[in-house]
Amino acid sequence: MSPRKKEDNEQIRTQRQQQIELTALELFALHGYHRTSISEIAKACDISKGLMYNYFDSKEALLESVLLFVMTDAADDIFNELVQKSKTLSPKKLLRHGIELFFTAMQVQAKFWKLSISLSMQVADMPRIHSVMTGIFQKYFVELEALLKAGKVENPAIRARLIAAQLDGIALHYIVLGDDYNLQAVKKMLLNDIEKLSNSDT
Amino acid sequence: MSPRKKEDNEQIRTQRQQQIELTALELFALHGYHRTSISEIAKACDISKGLMYNYFDSKEALLESVLLFVMTDAADDIFNELVQKSKTLSPKKLLRHGIELFFTAMQVQAKFWKLSISLSMQVADMPRIHSVMTGIFQKYFVELEALLKAGKVENPAIRARLIAAQLDGIALHYIVLGDDYNLQAVKKMLLNDIEKLSNSDT
Amino acid sequence: MSPRKKEDNEQIRTQRQQQIELTALELFALHGYHRTSISEIAKACDISKGLMYNYFDSKEALLESVLLFVMTDAADDIFNELVQKSKTLSPKKLLRHGIELFFTAMQVQAKFWKLSISLSMQVADMPRIHSVMTGIFQKYFVELEALLKAGKVENPAIRARLIAAQLDGIALHYIVLGDDYNLQAVKKMLLNDIEKLSNSDT
Amino acid sequence: MSPRKKEDNEQIRTQRQQQIELTALELFALHGYHRTSISEIAKACDISKGLMYNYFDSKEALLESVLLFVMTDAADDIFNELVQKSKTLSPKKLLRHGIELFFTAMQVQAKFWKLSISLSMQVADMPRIHSVMTGIFQKYFVELEALLKAGKVENPAIRARLIAAQLDGIALHYIVLGDDYNLQAVKKMLLNDIEKLSNSDT
DNA sequence: AATGAATGAGGCTTCATTCAT
DNA sequence: TATGAATGAAGCCTCATTCAT
User: Fold this and answer.
1) Which residues from 37-96 of A have any strand F atom under 7 Å from their CB?
2) What superfamily would CATH give domain B60-201?
3) pTM above 0.70, yes or no
């Protein structure tokens, strides 16, 4: 009945959607959400403006999609790898490894952090986006807390928040200051701190 | 023609300018830079749109001015108070006091943080703003470093960056999560950590 | 290749076309011609947008078709019923019956009236639609005139126009004011007037 | 203080507003509300699109303004003249005169009628416009009712609705059919009917 | 016959900025 | 110094229509 086969269409849709999301992530992260126009994204995707609305109901819906995409596909990577390793590594080493992953991701997936942080400041007017953002942070806390609990760290809930804040703060400074920021030295000291933390608990 | 003396005029000018900056800060922080129009600011100041351009060349120039104002007048408050106290308090107590000031400021001057952080993400396109922002952070690091050096903390330069990151990370989470974030518990643990840090140095 | 016989195909085509017209009438009347999109109609018909153009060359052609359909199939109902009754009823009773039919139709087929009237105002730009509309009115006059002539009413041509105007005016007010309009009282008085009219002619 | 004097500005505003409203009335009536774009109106006024929004918050607000303007400035003319004459004419002659005024207005102010009628069909989605429209009709009924009551016509409330419907129906047909509609003959018969109506009440 | 991805023109609206006064 | 009318570019979004399959 259908001319272009159904699977073909579905594939086209999926590909296009991902293409738009990736491009939007790129541009949102680079210039910020408000400075990036639908036109720009469409042009970067080499499609018409109108087609954007075949895939996303509005600019805000696109943003939401990008955030969810990034959260599930990108942020999860760290935790997934940790989950894999968790079978072989001790909690202590796992935490250390997790932090190292964070530093790598921060540099590699700078886009994600930049977008997340910049958005997190201006989402009061966008309730759906705000709830996605808080979801990201809360999940982050919870997973870290589980890791710390496994490592028998004292007061893991609050400690998780402190470590998360530490990491996000570093990311923030790194994003703003770029290579002027001595990331390696900071990382080294942080790992050293964490080491002591675990020691003091054993 | 001009019964008002020159000095009066200059004073009025300065006051107006500050009024505009304060209003802009308020609105930029509340709704974001892009969502705040010159019209809104003018209306909130009870002056005409045209007059705005008598004081600031452009919206971006106003933003720059706001940031500078905020950096010199607002952010300095913490350090100034610390400088005052530095004559009577030990470095250890001074650091503790500084952190407590930070937490107070974070809650009281949330506007400033929100604006600063959100802007700091999107300034690649605004070089002047970017350089103001990096200036803010660098100054922040340097002053903290001096404090730590006085307290004989090891490796004060990097430690200063870590503490600053810790604080900014907490601010970031607090801004995003609001009262869902257990600020008091975090603060308590952080102070405890700092305490140990200083202890290990004595 | 085609196991379906030709006649079946034609039947399907005709059914589809009517289905589209009916759906379009519904939606045009509900939201207005301009606020109803081809997409909406297609979705309501559970067919694709593309297929719409297999049946109608353009949105305007669809409108024209809808109007013609409505004129021939819907408006005629009143007259057809009258024609049926005309064999048994006296002209006087026939007129009375016709008016009662009109009131019923106005309430039951409000869609038709709403669409017809609203379109009739804006057809200067749509000559084909305009000619369809004028055709509807002229036919209406002529049939009413015949009825009046049979009833020996004086000056039936102009009287037909007056009665038609009376009815359309009532419909207009009823459509705008809805149930705030005292339709029953108006109907009663109108029938009474008509009664007198016929009386004065006997 | 003010550069261009306040009165000047007010005058400019008033003139522009009226100019826009008049132009909009013209175009809305000619092509319908939905087919008339803000762009077109602006162009016809020889001003920028942007300026339109200095005077009206939205296209719908402009429409509302046009309707109110037309209702108070145009529709009132008939009643005002009647009020003037009411001191010298008998109610019977007054009604006759009113109807003659209506016919004149219908031809002279065709725009108003066309707009009103065409809008009245499609305002279900625009509550503010709908309430303006119903207000127009209700006022119309009430004033006519008062006139009839003064003329001691039986059941003036319903009779007012019937006459109003009669007039609006004639207007409707005249608008659609234009000069094919025998307006003079219809008018003559209508006046004759009204004459009888009053007679039968004396 | 049928689909729906894709286009592109056009619609409404906002807003930084200019300028006559 | 001060106003606010005016501009024009740009933004988001809708939709009739086309076309490859």
Assistant:
1) 37-40, 49-50, 53, 57-60
2) Tetracycline Repressor, domain 2 (1.10.357.10)
3) yes
